[in-house]
């Protein structure tokens, strides 16, 4: 789901707030830079947390192809301290100044029935990024730090009842880690709209339009769009944070990054290494033309711990993602 | 004159923050309490698992250097993952200089304890058990250090793993000793690793006992400098229950000590008994591959001074009965495949008194069914190599004292 209109409005509000005098809902920069405050509201990222209305200096954004999390609605924001900006780095991750934050809220349910579940923060500090999970209270008035994570039962948009897992602080790092350092995953220029990047650049919040921006396909075209770019974008966004050199699953030798073009690294005719029963009796990660005997699809198509991929942040199968990857493997030359 | 109290105060302020001990008990909220302690620990801290059964629904993780996680003993402090709902392993360690000791994991849904990029790690008196015995639904690895330098596994016990009980992958400076591996597909496996010692272990009732493998297509390859000594490798005759598709699914039931690819593996002083396919098997990588960096052949594998029974009487090999008939009812104890690195060292050296047979394959990747069995004719072992730098660094052994 994209929120183009909402984003444009919110961004306009943001730019106005930055251009003019800052409102009273200033972000507490000290809280971003050190410590672990108990309440999400203590940071001051939101003018209205329950409605997810961003405060001054906080800009909403969306991704062309988002990470799937049991169908959760995700509200994404970046916070930039006054007088700072993002630095473009090709089609890759935007470089964030120290003191900035990336904010992602997970909600389930439509309209008035929407319940906020958790808000995950990535805080950029002098000694690197820190990832912290906050869990929303039953009254939806605030979220509190949940270092050890937690579970709660809820109903997904697909109508499945799940025990939803809020990750603990270490699990944040399981995905957000490369070569032992915590890093952001989402805001890569290739997965951000040209419109958003352009507005940010125009407002002085981004140093320049990055080369290769906006190159990942728009996931809303998943049903009919060309399979290969959609599948490769999906694997890049959903899998490659672990499955890349230096990532959490580097020892598998599988590298699912968008820029990878070696077929073996992408799993094509690659035998499993440590898949265990996750191999499902199949010989290759990806067997061209044969989605049903490809380990990669088998694991995407499972919700069973020990088989299911991704290992974290998933309790149900993403039918749309499976369909696209199935199409990609089926169309592959045998 | 400086007053003693002031001196004490000065000394105290100059001393480093003292390491703390955090006691954790089983019962309500154990998942959150234990995970929070693992997150908030400071380097040098010890987290103590009091005796009890900890019912856990999610994998645990530790990412702080220098932490000790200690239980009251592998029969006393039990992390029970029977109702685990998420994560790929029971416990994930991603920090250096960690000591794990005196506790157990039962029925993790994926792997037991995985330590990745976790240098200088100790597993001591750790038990990982899938309590239902050998089953394909069990997790893959029990003790699973990978991409690490400095690994010591001692006095540990793994059973039921659907891949390898104790598996060390893509690592170096490794010692696996005084441990028990039973009812796994592979008891102990050293894969794509260097400078490893596997010694004084009891390895029984697995499909294959001790495996030393090097596989293509991985970030770390070039396994070698492995010492397999003084192990009891007996009665490894459990039908292979690995999920198909995994490399160990191809290990024949009844394999004692098996080397695939690798350079310099010294196998000495082991008691190898009642492994009815092959007490010893030394072969090239069996499948096709595309990886220019990879050497599929065994080089300089030495089998010397082991105590071995007469051979294998119930081989899990294609044409097994014909083979038995051809060799007079008993296969000689060593299997080779007749392949060797055309540009490298000889593949295999075996004591003159120990008989063997060769598959006499013509090329790497050839199907076993095309073997043309015949007697094995390889040279006797030469002088022992220098073992300097092989095994876990001395500071790991010192940390246990």
From TrEMBL, chain A:
The keyword Disulfide bond does not apply. GO terms for molecular function: electron transfer activity; heme binding; metal ion binding. Residues 154-239 form the Cytochrome c domain. Residues 1-21 form the signal peptide. Keywords: Heme, Iron, Metal-binding, Signal. InterPro entries: Cyt_c-like_dom, SO_2930-like_C. This is Cytochrome c domain-containing protein. It comes from Erythrobacter sanguineus. The lineage of its organism: Bacteria, Pseudomonadati, Pseudomonadota, Alphaproteobacteria, Sphingomonadales.
UniProtKB/TrEMBL annotation, chain B:
Coiled coil: none annotated. InterPro entries: Beta_helix, Para_beta_helix_rpt-2, PbH1, Pectin_lyas_fold, Pectin_lyase_fold/virulence, SCF-Subunits/Alg-Epimerases, SO_2930-like_dom. Gene3D superfamilies: Single-stranded right-handed beta-helix, Pectin lyase-like. Keywords: Repeat, Signal, Ubl conjugation pathway. SMART domains: PbH1 (SM00710). It comes from the Bacteria. Residues 79-213 form the Right handed beta helix domain. Pathway: Protein modification; protein ubiquitination. Residues 1-19 form the signal peptide. It holds the Pfam family Beta_helix. This is Parallel beta-helix repeat-containing protein. It comes from Erythrobacter sanguineus.
């Amino acid at each position: 789901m994209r929120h183009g209109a909402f984003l444009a409005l919110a961004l306009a509000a943001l730019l106005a707030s930055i251009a003019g005098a800052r409102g009273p809902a200033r972000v507490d920069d000290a809280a971003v830079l050190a410590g672990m405050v108990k309440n999400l509201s203590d940071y001051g990222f939101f003018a209205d947390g329950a409605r997810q209305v961003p405060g001054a200096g906080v800009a909403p954004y969306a991704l062309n192809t988002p990470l799937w999390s049991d169908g959760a609605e995700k509200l994404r924001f970046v916070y930039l301290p006054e007088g700072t900006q993002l630095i473009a780095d090709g089609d890759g991750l935007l470089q964030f100044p120290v003191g900035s934050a990336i904010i992602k809220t997970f909600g389930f349910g439509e309209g008035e029935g929407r319940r906020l579940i958790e808000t995950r923060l990535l805080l950029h500090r002098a000694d690197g990024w820190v990832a912290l999970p906050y869990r929303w209270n039953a009254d939806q008035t605030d979220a509190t730090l949940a270092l050890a994570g937690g579970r709660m039962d809820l109903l997904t948009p697909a109508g499945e009842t799940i025990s939803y897992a809020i990750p603990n602080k270490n699990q944040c790092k399981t995905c957000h880690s490369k070569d032992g350092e915590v890093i952001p995953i989402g805001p890569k220029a290739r997965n951000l709209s040209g419109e958003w990047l352009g507005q940010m650049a125009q407002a002085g919040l981004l140093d320049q339009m990055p080369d290769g921006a906006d190159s990942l396909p728009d996931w809303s075209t998943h049903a009919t769009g060309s399979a290969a770019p959609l599948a490769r974008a999906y694997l890049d966004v959903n899998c490659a944070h672990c499955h890349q050199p230096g990532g959490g699953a580097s020892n598998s030798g599988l590298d699912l990054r968008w820029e990878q073009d070696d077929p073996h690294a992408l799993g094509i005719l690659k035998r499993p290494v440590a898949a265990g029963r996750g191999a499902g009796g199949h010989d290759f990660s990806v067997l061209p033309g044969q989605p049903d005997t490809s380990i990669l699809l088998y694991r995407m198509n499972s919700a069973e711990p020990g088989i299911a991929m991704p290992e974290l942040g998933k309790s149900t199968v993403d039918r749309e993602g499976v369909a696209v990857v199935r199409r990609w493997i089926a169309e592959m030359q045998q | 004159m400086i007053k003693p109290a002031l001196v004490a105060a000065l000394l105290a302020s100059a001393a480093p923050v003292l390491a703390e001990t955090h006691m954790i008990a089983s019962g309500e909220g154990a998942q959150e309490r234990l995970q929070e302690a693992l997150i908030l620990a400071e380097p040098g801290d010890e987290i103590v698992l009091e005796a009890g059964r900890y019912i856990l629904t999610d994998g645990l993780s530790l990412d702080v250097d220098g932490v000790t996680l200690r239980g009251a003993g592998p029969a006393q402090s039990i992390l029970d993952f029977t109702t685990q709902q998420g994560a790929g392993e029971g416990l994930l360690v991603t920090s250096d200089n960690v000591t794990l000791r005196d506790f157990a994991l039962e029925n993790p849904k994926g792997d037991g304890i995985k330590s990745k990029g976790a240098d200088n790690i100790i597993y001591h008196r750790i038990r990982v058990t899938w309590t239902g015995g050998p089953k394909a639904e069990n997790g893959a690895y029990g003790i699973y250090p990978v991409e690490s330098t400095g690994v010591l596994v001692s006095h540990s016990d793994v059973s039921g793993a659907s891949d390898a009980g104790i598996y060390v992958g893509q690592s170096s400076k490794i010692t696996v000793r005084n441990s028990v591996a039973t009812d796994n597909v592979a008891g102990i496996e050293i894969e794509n690793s260097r400078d490893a010692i596997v010694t004084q272990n009891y390895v029984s009732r697995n499909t294959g006992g001790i495996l030393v493998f090097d596989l293509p297509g991985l970030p770390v390859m070039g396994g070698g400098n492995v010492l397999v000594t003084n192990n009891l490798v007996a009665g490894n005759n459990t039908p292979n229950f690995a999920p198909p598709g995994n490399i160990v699914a191809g290990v024949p039931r009844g394999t004692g000590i098996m080397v695939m690819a690798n350079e310099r593996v010294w196998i000495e002083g082991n008691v190898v008994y009642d492994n009815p396919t092959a007490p010893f098997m030394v072969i090239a990588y069996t499948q096709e591959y595309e990886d220019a960096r990879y050497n599929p052949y065994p080089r300089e594998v030495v089998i010397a001074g082991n105590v071995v029974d007469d051979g294998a009487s119930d081989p899990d090999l294609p044409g097994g009965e014909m083979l038995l008939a051809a060799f007079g009812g008993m296969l000689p104890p060593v299997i080779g495949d007749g392949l060797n690195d055309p540009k490298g060292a000889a593949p295999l050296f075996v004591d003159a008194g120990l008989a063997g047979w060769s598959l006499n394959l013509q090329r790497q990747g050839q199907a076993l069914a095309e073997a043309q069995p015949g007697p094995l004719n390889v040279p006797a072992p030469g002088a022992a190599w220098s073992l300097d730098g092989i095994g876990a660094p001395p500071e790991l052994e010192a940390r246990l004292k």
